[in-house]
Amino acid sequence: MTGVTPRVLPPPGLHHYHTTSLPTNGGSGAPCSLVMGNIDRHGDPMVANHSTYSSLGEAYERVRLGFSPAYNGDPHLERNRSANVSNDLNCSLFLVNLPPDLTTTRLIAAVHAMGPTGRIYATHINAPEPDRQHYGCAAKVIFFERQAAQTFFSLCEQYGFVVDGCTARVMWNRIKTAEQAHSRVTTRVLLIGGHRDFINPEALTAYFRTKLQFQVDRIIPHTDGMDGENAVIEYRFGSFRCQAEAAKMALMREHQDVRCFFHPDPCDPSHPDWTEADFRRVRYGVGHLQNPLGAVREDEEEEQ
């Protein structure tokens, strides 16, 4: 990839982004993570070993299906394959030059800091691969709607995208994802209510670990208006896809006494925390961009 490190301007949404001010997830302060190729259950980066591909046959098969030979996911899953849509309908972005110890919490916090963009459909972090000279993490961020993805990309062009001091390169993912046909209220965030013996960060996380692989963005207890026996937890997953959707299905199927609803994604303009000033900054930052800074328009990196 050619070019110089883009200069960095203050993001239009939250001008000061500090990871130390983030709420903790449960008691550990680190995201719960069980997804392969991302970070382990203790929040530590998982080491990938791709000095040679596991087999030439597998590499050829990935290429035949339209993936990089080093692709870490399952190329046979329909959801992982490139959607048959035009480039201007792609909702998936690919980010490189991210911190080597990146977590889902910090990635989504940096997306949120750019300003109101839209609902996040899925995130995925690829661990560093030093033997392939990939010393930082890479990540995929997919939005529910193309407009949200375009807004985020345009903000990255205008202001740059910085996570913990690392200025990332942002590009459209060549493995495309179409807009999702889910209801407008469907998100990666669940609002869960019930008896506090079960509705608490530790018990819910332990239960979800028996049902699915997932990453946690944040877990936020809500106590206002609750009596001594009941509790409400806002559980922000890293993805809706296969995470929030699967968790909600499990709760509805196995715990009829638990109340579970989708809740607004904090990255979405519909979230009540955004102010009119935030929207003005985003509107003025998007549009007639003359000098792209933090984003590239064409894929210049292979997907890891």
Automatic annotation (TrEMBL):
<feature type="region of interest" description="Disordered">
    <location>
        <begin position="1"/>
        <end position="23"/>
    </location>
</feature>
<dbReference type="InterPro" id="IPR035979">
    <property type="entry name" value="RBD_domain_sf"/>
</dbReference>
<dbReference type="GO" id="GO:0003676">
    <property type="term" value="F:nucleic acid binding"/>
</dbReference>
<protein>
    <submittedName>
        <fullName>Uncharacterized protein</fullName>
    </submittedName>
</protein>
